[in-house]
Design brief:
The protein has twelve helices and 26 strands. It is α/β, with parallel strands linked by helices. The protein has three domains: about 170 residues, FAD/NAD(P)-binding domain (3-Layer(bba) Sandwich), CATH 3.50.50; about 120 residues, 3-Layer(bba) Sandwich (FAD/NAD(P)-binding domain); about 120 residues, FAD/NAD(P)-binding domain, CATH 3.50.50. The strands form seven sheets. Strands 3-2-1-7-19 form a five-stranded parallel sheet. The chain has a five-stranded parallel sheet with strand order 9-16-10-11-12, covered by helices on one side. A five-stranded antiparallel sheet has the order 22-23-26-25-24, sandwiched between helices. The protein starts with a strand and ends with a helix.
Length: about 450
């Protein structure tokens, strides 16, 4: 009898798990269950469709129907897993017509993802208030944008800022409200966030920090947002206050939930229930530096976890070492990136860090098109290990963050990074690589 693998959730983690399972076991019966009516797509691309950089939401769909046939996946769209019995190894499904079916499994992967957090703001259920988490959400916002002149975004994470820039690109006046003292609080320290804020304000984006949205005003339809006693006009309100893991199915089945509120997993992405794995936004993993439970909520972590879960569910062996929360994005005409921990998280976990920080250029200053770049390195005082990096620059941030991520994973000290053999050509970089200069600054402070 071929092995039967059921995967609940068919986006980043679920689809990757299915592919990895198929490569591991050519004969397995693989059932992919997806709540949404849409095939696997990239959520990360949603704001860029709104901004017009990507022509349509169809472009975000990763695989054509023929791919699922070729891989012999039984893809069930518009189908929800409503109950799970880990003793009997069965899962109960309900399709869009309301038809119920109970199926058995040998291995089960929970890739149930996350849902947008709804802060307790008066008027949050009014018409004209959106979140941006699914293609359906994106289509509704795109439709509203056709008549809109102004928008307010509540929350300044990457989705919030990318959406705000999309509005600006389409000629809609945009305001971002962040209740914490600085934008991108999960990603950047206050000094680097300030650099991002100044750049965005120069582009015409209004940013309010340190104040919470008090109410969404308007009768049935939102017409504005009340913040700090001021009413800001808004034809569209987007709530981008983060996401929470979808763990209801796991909890109902008695599967252990971790301290981050994600499904607790080990390095093989196994849950507390035998032959049940979890991957993606719903799964708790470990932070590589702090060794504490962590919930990355990143597409990159989701696909890597999905691959590990898929291999193991199909009888192979793979491990996921944890996450560094490495993140990068383009905001208007510049890029930002971060990896490892920030000063805030270092103090939270009792790590004594020193900082090396520099401003440089992405090319030789005499070469046309040279753009500024700011690099911040965090070094643990006792071990001299690099534990974090943040970069804001005009270009080439991604590969520098990748280099720092690799340096952290290899336990590189700041002295070793300062001796890195880097390359140079006036058209692509300066003689001295900015991350090396930041390492030298950190050594001076040591």
């Amino acid at each position: 009898m071929p092995r039967k693998i059921v995967i609940v959730g068919a986006n980043a983690a679920g689809a990757e798990a299915a592919v990895a399972a198929r490569k591991t076991d050519r004969e397995a019966e693989i059932i992919l269950v997806n709540k949404e009516d849409t095939r696997t797509y990239s959520r990360c691309g949603l704001p860029f469709v709104l901004g017009g950089q990507i022509p349509s939401f169809e472009n975000l769909i990763v695989y054509p129907p023929s791919f699922y046939r070729m891989m012999k996946f039984d893809l069930r769209l518009g189908t929800t897993a409503v109950d799970l019995n880990t003793e009997a190894k069965t899962v109960e499904l309900v399709d869009k017509e309301g038809k119920t079916e109970t199926i058995e499994y040998d291995s089960l992967i929970l890739a149930t993802g996350s849902h947008p957090f709804k802060p307790p703001i008066d008027g949050i259920d009014k018409e004209g208030v959106f979140s941006l988490h699914t293609i359906k959400d994106g289509e509704a916002i795109l439709k509203a944008m056709k008549k809109a002149k102004s928008a307010v975004i509540i929350g300044s994470g990457l989705i919030g800022l990318e959406t705000a820039i999309a509005f600006l690109d389409q000629g809609i006046k945009a305001t971002v409200i962040e209740m914490l003292p600085s934008i991108l609080p999960r990603l950047l320290d206050r000094d680097m966030a300030r650099e991002v804020q100044l750049r965005l304000e120069r582009k015409g984006l209004r940013i309010i920090v340190g104040k919470a949205a008090e109410a969404i005003v308007g009768n049935e339809r939102a017409t504005g947002v009340l913040v700090g006693g001021e009413e800001i006009e808004a034809d569209i309100v987007v709530v981008a206050a983060g996401v929470r893991p979808n763990t209801e199915l796991a909890q109902k089945a008695g599967i252990e939930i971790g301290e981050t509120r994600g499904i607790k997993t080990n390095i093989r992405m196994e849950t507390s229930a035998k032959d049940v794995y979890a991957a993606g936004d719903c799964a708790e993993t470990t932070h590589i530096i702090t060794r504490r439970p962590a919930l990355p909520l990143l597409g990159t972590a989701a696909v890597r976890e999905g691959k590990v879960a898929g291999v193991n569910a199909a009888g192979g062996y793979a491990v996921f070492p944890g996450s560094l929360f490495s993140t990068v994005s383009q905001l208007s005409d510049f890029e930002i990136g971060a990896t490892g921990i920030t000063e805030f998280w270092a103090s939270r976990f009792g790590l004594d860090v020193i900082v090396g920080k520099i401003s440089g250029h992405t090319r030789a200053t005499y070469y046309p098109g040279a753009k500024t770049i700011k690099v911040k390195l965090l070094v643990e005082r006792e071990t001299k290990r690099i534990v974090g990096g943040q970069i804001v620059g005009g270009e080439d941030v991604t590969q520098r963050i990748n280099a720092l991520s690799l340096a952290i994973q290899m336990n590189m000290t700041v002295y070793e990074l300062a001796k890195a053999d880097t390359c140079y050509a006036p058209s692509v970089c300066e003689t001295w690589e900015p991350i090396v200069l930041a390492a030298e600054m950190a050594i001076k402070r040591l």
